[in-house]
Design brief:
By secondary structure, the protein is mainly alpha-helical. The chain has helices at 21-33, 39-50, 60-80, 88-102, 109-132. The protein has a domain at 39-132.
Length: 140
């Protein structure tokens, strides 16, 4: 048996993709470059710079780069959650994080370790503040 098909009475708009080819290419590149938040890596790097054992001179640049990435990720999360408008402490930590992130590590090893420890401290404080304001779940 065959049924009689329905005919549309109202005209239906032709579907159009929401983005053109160039915009889709840009979006795909951003998706491929995206890195998930890794709380364990963040805590490991913070522990490495705040530990009693001073990081080796060869590790300073690598640790500084990783901490800059963690700071950038945390600030991005805070901006997306609009927490800086609700919480003055978070806004202050975000400002400090932005300032530290653009600074270069000093050439002197002792000063570079101090710089790493400041970055580690701000990273840890911002992480704890984002957990307290419910922007993030507690990191392991």
């Amino acid at each position: 048996m065959t049924a009689v098909g329905q005919h549309w009475i109202r005209p239906v708009e032709r579907w159009a993709p929401p983005l053109d080819g160039q915009a889709l290419t840009v979006l795909l590149a951003k998706v491929r470059a995206w890195e998930a938040f890794d709380g364990e890596a963040l805590l490991g790097d913070v522990a490495a710079v705040l530990d009693d054992v001073v990081p080796a001179e060869q590790q300073v640049d690598e640790l500084a780069e990783r901490l800059r990435g963690h700071l950038m990720r945390l600030v991005t999360i805070a901006v997306a959650a609009e927490v800086e408008q609700r919480d003055d402490t978070t806004a202050r930590l975000m400002s400090q994080a932005r300032t530290l992130r653009i600074e270069e590590a000093p050439g002197d090893h002792c000063r570079a370790v101090g710089y790493l420890r400041r970055m580690g401290w701000i990273t840890n404080e911002l992480l704890e503040r984002l957990v307290a304001t419910k922007c993030l779940k507690e990191a392991v």
